Task: structure prediction
Amino acid sequence: MRAKPVRSADAIHPMLGVKLWANPCWLSFRANFVAHHFNQPVYEWVWQRFKLTPPEHIVLYALGLKDGITADDIAASTARPKNTLSRGVNALLAKKLIARRPDRTDRRRLFLNLTARGRKIVASSVPAFVAHEQAMAQALSAAERRELKRLLDKIVVDKNRWPTRIQGRP
Result:
């Protein structure tokens, strides 16, 4: 498990080195580390700029990618609890950043759409997210970024086979 560091170990905190090269949970550590260092600054910026919480922006972002979906669709594509996203949806409705309309065939299903104001926030926030991600990935060549994306896609697509509970000794 002891892979050689790509960069000098002198450039990182010693405990980070331990977690990188002596950690049996190598994938989850790296995924969480990268996600935290992406999410924390961007959602702090979103709060300062737009006064939106992370769940609120997650809903806007999802609708920016595919308008006219349900809150269940958004929950299925995130690691956020449905009740957290529901609060985000309700706050966005109150702020008039999204609109909700019932399905004509099943009135219990509610489709969400961006309003013009919501679309404007998405349009101005996504480039900042992309720039931040690109800055984080600058250590990789274009080919390495494509390969990392391909490998992570493979893991994510296999989600239905992931265990949902810890199996093992009590």
User: Anything to note?
Assistant: The chain has seven helices and two strands. The two ends are 26 Å apart (CA to CA). The chain has a mean pLDDT of 91. The first strand starts at residue 98 and ends at 102.
